[in-house]
Amino acid sequence: MAAEQPSRGNRVSTVLARKLGGELLRLRDAAGLTQPQAAAALSATAAKVAKMEKGWVPFREPDIRALCELYGVSDAQVVDRLLSLAKTDRERRKVKGWWNEYPELRALVEYVALEDIATGVRTWQGAFVPGLLQTPDYARALAVGNADWDDPDEIERFVEAKIARQVRLTDANPLQLWALIGEGALRQLVGGRDVMRAQLAHLVQAAGHPHVKVQVVPFIAGSHPGMTSAFSIVSFAESGAMDVVYMDTTSSTLWLESEADAARHDAAFGRIARNGLAPRDSLALVERIRKEL
Q1: Most exposed residue of 123, 141, 169, 222, measured as fewest CB within 10 angstroms of its CB?
Q2: Higher pLDDT, 195 or 6
């Protein structure tokens, strides 16, 4: 588990590198080996292995193969998964994306950077419409309501950056988005009636894209696993690249990077989805709420 992206000198500990490092640490422990033994296999120092396992340095393919051989990992799929994750992380580190020009994004920077190279996002939000599906007026009203900014210009920059993310839904290789939204988020008058009518209409329009799936979890669903928290599961192009889970709370930004955490939230997302209406019925409910306004 980690907060927003830390840095040390010109090194950066990224979400993907920490995830890969944690997996290699698990394999080393399972093999009963020490960091100095791993370092010997790489003709490196134990300090370097420690940095690798904590995600401070990018992983080279020869190093991963050497460590897998040392740890007795013979399953080609496991090795390929680790290599794919390392490749994705190296590509992520090279990118100087537009999001770096928006300090207003704050802790969201790392998430937006990963979203840019992801192939899929599954998100559950019970309190508000997910950012990838927001209108500018709705995003602005949320920012004002959060009272995190005193400067109107800073709010506008934040809104501009949030809306810029949505290009991933219409680019040449669009993001596959599956959004589960609580009915309460559709009825909360964020920004007033006019803003909400436009937001709900935009939600229906966005759901018309073949790569966007929207389900509403209605009030009548009763108790379900998503009532205590909201989260997003980010998936990557390489079939072996493990998912990461993102949670944004009032006091901190959390990345859940272990395979166990990803599996647990994947299962939770499935259970929440089973409590949701079918996509067609979900959009019918959105339209009814819009007309009520």
Answers
A1: 222
A2: 195
pLDDT, one tens digit per residue, over 221-254 is 999 989 988 999 998 766 555 688 998 765 556 8
Do residues 272 and 179 share a domain? yes
Task: Please check whether residues 160 and 227 belong to one and the same domain.
Answer: yes
Do 268 and 131 lie in one domain? The reply is yes
> How high is the pLDDT of residue 8?
38
Contact 143, 91 (CB under 8 A): no
pLDDT digits (tens, 9 = 90+) for 58-96: 888 999 999 999 999 988 888 888 888 888 888 777 767
Domain count, the chain: 2
Question: What CATH number is associated with residue 226?
Answer: 3.30.870
Q: Which of 38-47, 88-97, 135-144, 180-189 has the lowest mean pLDDT?
A: 88-97
